[in-house]
């Protein structure tokens, strides 16, 4: 590609110019001087442009500059990919250092665990009143309870998270968990924000939490 730029008279020598352009194009510019417009005696600079890479990077010769910029580009691509995962869900809400996401589908507890893992996160588990209320707002769009990442499958009456650690926050309803009929080993959160234990094979809304890459 070639294009002309009208300039005032100059004695610029032939030179190659490399510039960083914000966006997704890369150019190698060859500047040729010495040509003149016969009508107004002004010099015409001819730029020969070659498209190179998806992103134009111009390195000024400073050691380590290339690797630094490449590292920043990789980091940016990772963050964009991460955000694409989040916004692929019909409902998402940011709370603290994470996003709560769901597409409104329901499933059993193990299905929810797999679904969230495959989505790049894990099954939701509020760890503070703020997070609990944020999850309530997500549930309000569906008027449905949801599984949360707490079970007492290993030890009856002792609910732990997915790493088998004791819960740092709970919001059990009065008399809960009660292991009704001896088959309630998975925790759910009601639309009111109150927790209850329920059968792991029942179906509830699947909500995932995805960590914020910027944090």
From TrEMBL:
It comes from the Eukaryota. GO terms for biological process: ossification. Residues 95-209 form the C-type lectin domain. Keywords: Lectin, Secreted, Signal. One of its GO terms (cellular component) is extracellular space. Signal peptide: none annotated. SUPFAM superfamilies: C-type lectin-like (SSF56436). It is found in: Secreted. Gene3D superfamilies: Mannose-Binding Protein A, subunit A. Its main location: secreted. InterPro entries: C-type_lectin-like, C-type_lectin-like/link_sf, CLec_Tetranectin-domain, CTDL_fold. GO terms for molecular function: carbohydrate binding; growth factor activity. Pfam families: Lectin_C. PANTHER family: C-TYPE LECTIN DOMAIN FAMILY 11 MEMBER A (PTHR22799:SF1), TETRANECTIN-RELATED (PTHR22799). This is Mannose-binding protein C-like. It comes from Clarias magur (Asian catfish).
């Amino acid at each position: 590609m070639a294009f002309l730029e009208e300039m005032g008279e100059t004695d610029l020598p032939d030179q190659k110019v490399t510039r960083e352009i914000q966006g997704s194009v890369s150019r190698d510019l060859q500047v040729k001087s010495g040509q003149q417009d016969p009508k107004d005696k002004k010099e015409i600079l001819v730029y020969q442009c070659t498209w190179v890479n998806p992103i134009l990077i111009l390195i000024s010769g400073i050691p380590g500059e290339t690797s630094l910029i490449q590292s920043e580009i990789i980091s940016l691509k990772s963050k964009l990919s991460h955000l694409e995962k989040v916004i692929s869900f019909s409902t998402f809400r940011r709370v603290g250092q994470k996003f709560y996401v769901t597409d409104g589908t329901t499933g059993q507890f193990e299905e929810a665990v797999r679904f969230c893992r495959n989505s790049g996160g894990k099954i939701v588990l509020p760890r503070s009143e703020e997070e609990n209320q944020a999850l309530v707002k997500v549930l309000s769009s569906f008027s449905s309870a949801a599984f949360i990442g707490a079970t007492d499958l290993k030890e009856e009456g002792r609910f732990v998270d997915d790493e088998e650690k004791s819960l740092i926050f709970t919001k059990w309803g009065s008399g809960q968990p009660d292991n009704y009929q001896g088959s309630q080993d998975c925790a759910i959160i009601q639309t009111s924000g109150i927790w209850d234990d329920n059968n792991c094979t029942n179906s509830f809304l699947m909500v995932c939490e995805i960590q914020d890459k910027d944090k």
